[in-house]
Known about the structure:
This protein has helices at residues 2-65, 70-110, 141-148, 155-165, 182-194, 209-223, 240-248, 302-311, 321-328, 349-355, 374-385, 390-394, and strands spanning 127-135, 167-175, 197-203, 225-233, 237-238, 256-262, 292-301, 335-338, 362-363. It is α/β, with parallel strands linked by helices. The chain is globular and about 115 Å long.
Amino acid sequence: MKEKLIMKNKGDQQASRSLISKKWTLFLCIGSFCAGLLFTNRPTVLGSEGLKLVSEDCDLRKIKNVKRDPKQIFGEISKTHQAVQTLDKTISSLEMELAAARSIQESIVNGSPISEEDTRTSTERRKYLMVVGVNTAFSSRKRRDSVRATWMPQGEKRKKLEEEKGIIMRFVIGHSATVGGILDRAIEAEDRKHGDFLRLDHVEGYLELSAKTKTYFATAVTMWDAEFYIKVDDDVHVNIATLGHTLVRHRKKKRVYIGCMKSGPVLAQKGVRYHEPEYWKFGESGNKYFRHATGQLYAISKDLATYIALNQHVLHKYANEDVSLGSWFIGLDVEHIDDRRLCCGTPPDCEWKAQAGNACVASFDWTCSGICRSVDRMKEVHRRCGEGENSVWSSTF
């Protein structure tokens, strides 16, 4: 009986070993098959990766060993710079078009008339060299006539100047407190005769010159696509050709502010001329203003005129318009150009300079902030300091 049990246990152990052996055999077969697949594909994968690494290493060595031609590098940099300039011009053009659209929208809302020139797209608009806005007042009819008789071409000549030389010239004026009153009707009659006014949506007044300046640039940049926008007083003598030649030297610059730069005292005393009510903003008593162009004549590039148009509702106005304009550019990337030919004296100063071959752009008397008794003396200044009528027609800008 005991032997039978021993034999039975041995049989069970052998059967169990046989079952385990079969399981391990099957497992080893499957494992060998998978391992075979793995090691069969591995050389191919490693080979391709290895070839790729070797290829990249060779390419890097080639790049390191090749010496770049400086001319080629400069050419690539130049192309990049041109692309950036083109993009900048496109952005400026879009900004100007946006300003024009806003101006037109405001005109529609306010019920103001819109000219055909206003409704043209930027691609249809004529490109001009400069817009010269001659600041004037209702009481300055004789001053305007003295300018018309000297340095501002009239009639067909003025139209020819626009078409052939790209120079726009207009007397700039708003309207009276009583719209449609006798003062406005007088200007309308004068405009029908000469056709040389730019009417602004602005109420005239000496204390509103900063607002008028802002409105002028915002209006001019929406009406005419020019490289430069100029403001000049109606008691200043200007040589148009010399002005054009002066401006074109700066036409490749992005944002330029051209004039006779000064930094006068901030006048805190009430009752004096040029009193600054906000004198406290400029520091202690006796301080001076920041550098800005004197108000008789100054020029700004299109980008700056566009900036004024886009931001006119938030630009602060100080008592003096030349200070206001200068303040609008503080904090911007603007190049201030101090050109003393824009503020020559009347004869003999401008006469001597003209004889020496250094003709002045503008002439006036500092004591009068313009030509003293300009109505009587404008022709004399023009005769002695003028560049000659043919200068502008023979000039290429």
